[in-house]
Design a protein that fits this description.
Elements: E1 11-17, E2 24-30, E3 43-45, H1 59-66, H2 76-89, H3 95-99, H4 113-120, H5 128-134, E4 142-143, E5 150-151, E6 172-175, E7 181-184, H6 188-197, E8 203-206, E9 223-226, E10 236-238, E11 243-246, H7 251-264, H8 266-269, H9 272-279, H10 285-290, H11 293-302, H12 309-316, E12 320-325, E13 330-334, H13 335-338, E14 346-353, E15 361-368, E16 379-388, E17 394-395, E18 400-404, H14 414-420, H15 428-441, H16 453-471, E19 493-497, H17 516-520, E20 537-543, E21 549-555, H18 557-560, E22 565-569, E23 606-612, H19 615-624, E24 626-632, H20 639-645, E25 651-657, E26 668-676, E27 688-694, E28 697-702, H21 707-718, E29 725-729, H22 743-757, E30 761-764, H23 767-773, E31 780-788, E32 794-806, H24 813-821, E33 831-839, H25 853-871, H26 875-881, H27 890-900, H28 903-916, E34 920-933, E35 939-945, E36 952-956, H29 965-977, E37 984-986, E38 989-990, H30 1005-1030, H31 1036-1045, E39 1051-1056, E40 1064-1077, E41 1083-1092, H32 1100-1119, E42 1151-1156, H33 1175-1179, H34 1183-1197, H35 1213-1219
Parallel strand pairs: 7-9, 8-9, 19-42, 20-30, 28-29, 32-33, 36-37, 41-42
Antiparallel strand pairs: 1-2, 1-3, 4-5, 6-7, 10-11, 11-14, 12-13, 12-14, 15-16, 16-17, 16-18, 20-23, 21-24, 22-23, 25-33, 26-31, 27-28, 27-30, 29-38, 31-32, 34-40, 35-36, 35-39, 40-41
Helix pairs in contact: 7-9, 14-15, 15-16, 16-35, 21-22, 24-25, 25-26, 29-30
Binding site for [2Fe-2S] cluster 1: 2, 7, 10, 32
Cofactor: [2Fe-2S] cluster; FAD; Mo-molybdopterin
Protein name: Indole-3-acetaldehyde oxidase
Length: 1229
């Protein structure tokens, strides 16, 4: 989990008393941001309160589980509790309100669609079809025996929910073991009494504590003063003269107040509706529930670079702030002046707003951010104008034009404000001059990883222009009107289409995942849920903060003096080999140190490990270890620089596609490049391990996709036999390739500490350390030249492909994989492509979902788009010209998806839309896929049938990380044995039962495991056949007992071996339609249609989930996720939820249709099925040409005539805007 309120996995419900009303409200809160002392007077409910396997499941849990709204399940409790809190306060919630409330909940697995559908089915306006689709047939309404109302929990007559909490009116003081003081006060006077008492010691007024999610404390706080119980600080009042808001009012409460006042006093305070809408864009529901007005403003006071949306809107409308001091003096200041006011031992009491006549004043604000929700702004803007609409929109007084995100000291566009006073906004010359004036006074700074000054400056100008256009819908040219409107996202819709044969059930049956209900109730156990053992310790890794260094020294003295710190270990303490990448387990691996012994190769490299009595102490102590870097050399972090320099020490050839023929029908030549960066896996569960020493070895519980590799690595590091290391994995909280090889180091470090201390040790990386230490997806660059005929058929293609492997080459076979997948559906006989690895001074990059295929498919589809542009032909026709014969099954799929997606109609609509709109543009693309799936490795399956009840237990060599391998294994087992699915349980993967098995990855594991399961079941059926013949009418239980009575062995093992199954192609087609706001760079996917050939799916709902999840992860890669390094130190700067943004719930397509191809049977697959886990990520590349087509229209409107232009990836708002050719000269009326 992120531990900063950015992911939502830790959300719980808090029943909170309101000191003003005396009533209780239920709110969702981020437990990671909430100090336990801050919960005084609260009743806190976790997901376990809603239902469980022992007492039944609540409605929310049942809806989510039965609609396949879980995959890895790590985010699920937070999702459930957020929805629970919403329903507790709003029984009549609408679907749009539901969909808008999950910006603070990240899910990397599902793509959000099934989660949103499940929760929207609980809304008052949910359609019958949606409810029918999501309701489990066993779901029952529960009536609470206490309240006599329908209950969302499932405690029945044993209602154990806490009664409403009571606010303890007494003042409270607590002292912690480390000497800190916590005070709970109930009046402003008591605040000042404590401030006088603390003298000059550090203190903090605690409201919601949400600032920790933005800025880490830079000083040690001695006194914490909890001010939530102070009535006068949370009162909101209204009159015709002003609105007054208590400074400690939560953002959510302020939002509700503004919405209410905007209706009740619309003539004077109608503008507060815009304020409420803007607050809705601040952070997330749980953060807004606890974050306060004063808290947000205080962050701005302490950190001028903070792009506070609250400060912006308050300053724009001319709000004033009331501040009190210990002498009883109060003063009222404009919001901007507050920034320069000394706030030591002072308290913000209230904020007041003036009435603004809605007939003459217009207030609008904007926030442009990297994704739809829960992100700070690139630039935010507020505009307040008093206008005479009957006099050419004359500006009657000096307007207020406020921007955030320009530089720490910029607030008002003062020159522009002065210029516009008395001017007519409908005068095009006035607008041109005002934009020019604004352009001159904007001086953006540039602090990485912030967006470029060029974008932020241009965006601010665009927002003023957008504001003006919004005022003059009837005064501007029709083509310009769209520029005045924001992109409006409608309520999302979706469909899933597949076939299921009831004669095969439970095989091919759409069932929920086996673990779904356990995940929805919090009963699913992950590594960090394993109960603590006596004497347990916690470890934290000391990492390099800069690179490179020829040598270094460590001084742990400060850390070791801290209370609770036990030990510090370095490479010298390793009893075995200092290596976490053994060639015994993977032939291409070369030595990679667990802890650096001499050189520092990259920032984030592990240097040592601290062990302490608690994780919090260990993490703090790790920061206290002093590192002296010797002979520092500047790091190389940009692999493009290496490519340009052709540094042979860093570039290594890894493979090639050799040309078989070269054709001569050459009518056009083209050349270009394609570049795409890295992607962080964003597993909700970071790298973790738990080790328990035993009398004859050690139990190791890693978050690993490859337990056999963990067993070997730990044994090798400790210099012990493998049979002393017992590895057990129940499930992972997300993986996507990051835990194939990269958990080796973490588990080895944890085991080292446990071995040396002979005590249980838990090592759980923080998100920042995880992102600093662990490699990402391989960045890719291709330089190409091609010749084609008039139809776009390739006559030859010459290319060099480069991929950034990081500081080590251990996973560099991804490069050869990229070459393998590069052809996609196309004939490569005329191609000559050489693949190279490029070494940089960054953490070793590693496998990431669809490694190689993602980069390869993207590169060739980019080239196909380039060809189509040059020959001026339909891109689909150009692709078909280059198809190879074995891709022919795609042709009917293309025809089908064209029809189902209204592809041709959409092209006509888009052409007309783009012709009529200058500042909004649309685009569409169709991408085919022929994904060669190749098998490898070995996977065990072990099945036991138990006498007495005939139940079945399975253990296999695959790792359940959300992909549904356990569910498919159980379905295959039930199908072949002919028994009900509920008789089967799938147990943990254990090294004793699945020795030497391969990694879970490459989309093959589910099928390979199911193959081994199938073989086991067939053998068991053979053993049971005599009893079936002797007892034809006996039920399963009786037959099993009879077999056991005659000593039949009902335990069977089998192993999938490499080449047990044949390779095959997975076919897919995707159509994506987008809309782009050219003025801001914002974009949304209007519709996405995905068709994939899953053969005869083993489990259709599971496969649909894989398609959606992979597709949305790909959208994140191409649209949102950007990694930025400090070029001086090599340190990753985007290492938190604050600055690394995977897609959120409102970033997915607004209209998403998934189809599994009908009447498909895979003759070489397991029970006629095909894999689904990775191919859809490849097809998400379609969003790139779709946006390119939209931008092409914008560039043409700006006067650019060109056949082709390159795009800088990812297509963030910044990069889209930069490519949109948006200039002040074009901003006309």
């Amino acid at each position: 989990m992120c531990e900063e309120g950015g992911c939502g996995a830790c959300i719980v419900a808090a029943n909170v008393p309101n000191p003003q009303t005396g009533k209780t409200t239920t709110i969702a809160v981020n437990s990671c941001l909430t100090p336990i002392y801050n919960c005084h007077g609260w009743a806190v409910e976790t997901v376990e309160a809603l239902g469980s396997s022992s007492k039944g499941f609540g409605k929310i849990q049942s809806r989510l589980a039965s609609n396949n709204g879980t995959q890895c399940g790590y985010c699920t409790p937070g999702m459930v509790m957020n929805m629970y809190s919403l329903l507790q306060e709003n029984k009549d919630i609408s679907m749009s309100e539901v969909e808008n409330s999950f910006g603070g909940n990240i899910c990397r697995c599902t793509g959000y669609r099934p989660i949103l559908d499940s929760f929207k089915s609980l809304a008052k306006d949910a359609s019958e079809d949606l409810v029918k689709k999501c309701v489990d047939i066993e779901e029952l309404s529960v009536i609470c025996p206490r309240t006599k109302q329908e209950c969302l929990t499932s405690c029945g007559n044993l209602c154990d929910r806490s009664i409403d909490p009571l606010l303890n009116e007494s003042r409270l003081q607590l002292k912690t073991d480390d000497g800190k003081n916590w005070y709970r006060v109930k009046s402003v006077q008591e605040i000042f009494e404590i401030l006088e008492m603390v003298d000059d010691e550090s203190y903090m007024l605690v409201g919601g504590n949400t600032s920790y999610g933005v800025y880490r404390p830079t000083k040690n706080i001695n006194h914490f003063i909890d001010i939530k119980g102070v009535r006068e600080l949370i009162v909101a009042s209204e009159s015709n003269d002003s609105l007054t808001l208590g400074a400690n009012l939560s953002l959510s409460s302020a939002m509700h107040f503004f919405n209410s006042v905007s209706k009740s006093k619309s003539a004077l305070f109608g503008y507060t509706k815009q304020m409420a809408d803007h607050i809705d864009l601040i952070a997330s529901v749980p953060v807004r529930n606890t974050g306060t007005l004063a808290g947000n403003l205080s962050i701005k006071h302490q950190h001028r670079d903070f792009p506070s949306d609250l400060f912006l809107i308050l300053e724009t409308v001319g709000a004033r702030i009331n501040i009190a001091d210990s002498m009883g003096m109060e003063k009222t200041l404009p919001i901007q002046e507050f920034l320069n006011n000394d706030m030591n031992k002072k308290v913000i009491k209230s904020i007041s707003l003036q009435p603004l006549n809605s007939n003459s004043y217009t207030f609008k604000s904007y926030k442009i951010m990297p994704r739809a929700q829960n992100s700070h702004a690139y630039v935010n803007a507020g505009f307040l104008f008093k206008l005479d609409n009957n006099d050419k929109f004359k500006v009657l007084e000096k307007p207020r034009i406020v921007f955030g995100g320009i530089n720490p000291n910029f607030v008002h566009a003062e020159l522009t404000e002065t210029f516009l006073e008395g001017k007519h906004l409908s005068d095009s010359k006035v607008i041109a001059e005002s934009l020019k004036t604004l352009e001159g006074e904007l001086k953006p700074n540039h602090v990485l990883p912030d967006a470029s000054p060029e974008y932020r400056k241009g965006l601010a100008i665009s927002l003023l222009y957008k504001f003006v256009l919004s005022l003059l819908p009837d005064e501007v040219a029709s083509k310009m009107k769209s520029g005045g409107a924001n992109l409006i996202r409608p309520l999302s819709t979706a469909s899933q289409t597949f076939e299921t044969d009831k004669k095969l059930w439970p095989l091919n049956q759409p069932v929920h995942k086996l673990e779904a209900f356990a995940q929805c109730s919090g009963e699913a156990q992950y590594v960090n849920d394993i109960p603590s053992h006596p004497g347990e310790l916690h470890a934290a890794v000391v990492v390099a903060k800069k690179a490179t260094a020829k040598s270094f020294t460590l001084n742990p003295e400060k850390a070791l003096k801290m209370d609770g710190v036990i030990s510090f270990f370095t490479a010298k303490d390793i009893p075995g080999r200092n290596n976490c990448m053994s060639s015994i387990m993977y032939p291409t691996f070369v030595n990679e140190e667990i802890l650096a012994s001499e050189r520092i190769l990259h920032a984030g490299q592990a240097l040592g490990v601290i062990v302490a009595k608690s994780r919090a102490i260990a993490l703090r102590a790790a920061e206290q270890v002093e590192v002296v870097y010797n002979n520092i050399e500047p790091p190389v972090v940009d692999f493009i620089d290496v490519i340009k320099s052709q540094d042979n020490k860093r570039i290594t050839e890894k493979g090639k596609i050799e040309r078989k023929t070269k054709k001569d029908d050459i009518k056009h030549k083209l050349s270009g490049t394609f570049e795409i960066g890295a992607q962080y896996h964003y597993t909700m569960e970071t790298q973790t391990c738990y080790c328990i020493p035993l009398e004859d070895g050690m139990d190791v519980y890693p978050s690993s996709q490859w337990p056999s590799m963990i067993q070997w690595t730990v044994a090798d590091v400790l210099n012990v036999q493998q049979n002393t290391i017992n590895v057990k994995v129940k499930r992972l909280g997300g993986a996507y390739g990051s835990k194939i090889s990269r958990n080796n180091q973490i588990s080895a470090l944890c085991a080292l500490c446990a071995h040396l201390l002979q005590r249980p040790v838990r090592l759980n990386l923080s998100l920042e350390t995880n992102m600093q230490m662990i490699g990402k997806r391989f960045p890719c660059y291709i330089d190409y030249e091609a010749a084609v005929n008039d139809d776009g058929k390739i006559q030859y293609l010459d290319a060099k492909l480069y991929q950034d492997v990081g500081a080590r080459e251990n996973e560099s076979d991804v490069v050869s994989g990229t070459l393998h997948w590069l052809p996609n559906t196309y004939d490569s006989e005329t191609w000559s492509v050489i693949g190279y690895s490029v070494r940089t001074d960054t953490p070793a990059n590693t496998w990431c979902r669809a490694p190689g295929s993602t980069e390869g498919v993207a590169a060739i589809e980019h080239i196909m788009e380039h060809i189509a542009s040059i020959v001026k032909k339909d891109p689909v026709a150009v692709r078909l010209q280059n198809f190879r014969t074995d891709a022919d099954p795609l042709k009917p799929m293309i025809d089908e998806i064209k029809a189902s997606s209204d592809y041709q109609k959409s092209i006509s609509e888009i052409e007309e839309f783009n012709k009529n709109n200058r500042w909004k543009k649309q685009g569409i693309s169709l991408i085919p896929l022929a994904y060669p799936l190749d098998y490898f490795g070995r996977y065990h399956a072990n099945i036991s049938i138990f006498a007495g009840d005939g139940s079945v237990a399975i253990s296999h060599g695959g790792i359940e990380c959300g992909q549904g391998v356990n569910t498919k294994a159980a379905q295959v087992c039930a199908h072949i044995l002919g028994i009900p699915l509920d008789l089967i349980k799938v147990k943990s993967t254990m090294s004793l039962i699945t020795p030497n098995d391969s990694t879970t990855g490459g989309s093959i594991t589910s099928e390979a495991v199911c193959y081994a399961i199938k073989k086991c079941c067939e053998e068991l059926n053979t053993r049971l056949q005599p009893y079936k013949e002797k007892m034809p009418k006996a039920d399963w239980k009786t037959m099993i007992q009879a077999a056991v009575n005659e000593d039949v062995d009902l335990n069977c093992s089998s192993m999938y071996k490499n080449k047990s199954l044949s390779s095959y192609l997975i076919f897919g087609v995707t159509v994506i339609r987008v809309e782009v706001d050219i003025l801001t760079g914002q974009h949304q996917i209007i519709r996405a249609d995905i068709m994939e050939d899953a053969g005869q799916s083993l489990s259709p709902d599971v496969d649909v989930g894989q398609v959606e999840g992979a597709f949305v992860m790909g959208l994140g890669y191409y649209l949102h996720e950007q990694l930025v390094h400090d070029k001086q130190t090599g340190k990753l700067l985007t290492d938190r939820t604050w600055n690394y943004k995977p897609p959120g719930a409102k970033d997915i397509p607004t209209n998403l249709h998934v189809t599994l191809v009908k009447n498909s049977r895979n003759p070489v697959g397991v029970l006629r099925s095909k894999a689904t886990g990775e191919p859809p990520l490849n097809m998400s590349f379609g969003v790139v040409p779709a946006i390119r087509n939209a931008l092409k229209s914008a560039r043409k409107d700006s006067g650019i005539e060109e056949d082709w232009f390159d795009l800088k990836m990812p297509l963030t708002c910044e990069n889209v805007w930069l490519h949109g050719s948006t200039h002040v000269k074009d901003m006309t009326l």
